């Protein structure tokens, strides 16, 4: 199997399930890990006075809150459609993932930047540095476990893609957010460890503040990156190239359709895809026959892309099926819904 084939199958598997079951398990594991990590870091800060440990403790609190928001988004997305929201609430998963980016930027990053600046301008010696080293070592172990768990759940959906490509191309927000968060947490702990180590070796506590500034800059950068990615999903991204190719192939498989004029797709959620198409029917096709062709196309599209839950097909202007004498012409003002 080629790398492209693996990517295609991975996209299909992820889109069909939304990676949601796997995401929930990874969110729970990350939440439990971050609660323990946050408590450990706060104890370490109280004992040592290290600003790096305080910044990391706030970071872990932010991460724990983020896991709660991701879980909330998943639950909100399960609400049934209403008259006000006829396409359902699937985009709640994107919205709350966007809020996660804002929380990481503000609560985690900006606080760390302030605390780092304060530590540099008002340096304080680190007391009991051995405690700081032990706590940072434990935290690295916990964060490594959380990242490993997220990677294990994401690997079946990644296919042959690099991790960065998977994060940027995935239509499911939770696992990519967890991967980015946990990776940033590990990098932040390394910055904290370097800051504390240099402070102890040199006797200069400003290194602790510099480490804290590095943590803040990292979290702000990660928050901006996630906000950009989640904004794109929230606005509505098209189906993947692989899925669009399958949809086009489903239309091409119908001899009664001369031409696919236009195709538009949009993810309403990771596992809810809207498909809108305009086609030219073969000459001499009656309106009733066109309806059967549409239904057959719908079945082929759903077989090829199971998440295509809402399909609308409209005859192009001048299509023979719309002009056949004695047949009911389709409404010209909107797409023809296929249910």
Topology:
Blueprint: H1 3-17, H2 20-48, H3 51-77, H4 92-121, H5 129-158, H6 163-169, H7 174-202, H8 206-235, H9 241-252, E1 257-269, E2 272-281, H10 287-304, E3 308-315, H11 320-323, E4 336-338
Parallel strand pairs: 2-3
Antiparallel strand pairs: 1-2, 3-4
Helix pairs in contact: 2-3, 2-5, 2-7, 3-4, 3-7, 3-8, 4-8, 5-7, 7-8, 9-10
Task: Jot down its keywords.
single chain, 339 residues, alpha+beta, Alpha-lytic protease prodomain-like, Alpha-Beta Plaits, four-stranded mixed β-sheet, 4 strands, 10% strand, elongated, disordered C terminus
Task: Tell me the β content.
Answer: 5-15%
Kindly state the percentage of residues in helix.
55-70%
Uncertain residue ranges = 1-13, 322-339
The fold-level CATH name of the largest domain is: Alpha-lytic protease prodomain-like
Read across the widest sheet, the strand sequence of neighbours is 1-2-3-4
Structural class: alpha+beta
Q: Span from first to last CA? A: 35 Å
Give Rg in angstroms.
26 Å
Question: Mean pLDDT, rounded to whole units?
Answer: 83
CATH architectural name of the largest domain: Up-down Bundle
Can you write the helix and strand succession as a string? HHHHHHHHHEEHEHE
Tell me how many strands there are: 4
The total tally of domains equals 2
What is the 3D shape?
Answer: elongated
Q: Characterize the main sheet.
A: 4 strands, mixed
Give the CATH superfamily of the largest domain. Cation efflux protein transmembrane domain
- Mind telling me the CATH class of the largest domain? Mainly Alpha
Question: How many alpha or pi helices?
Answer: 11
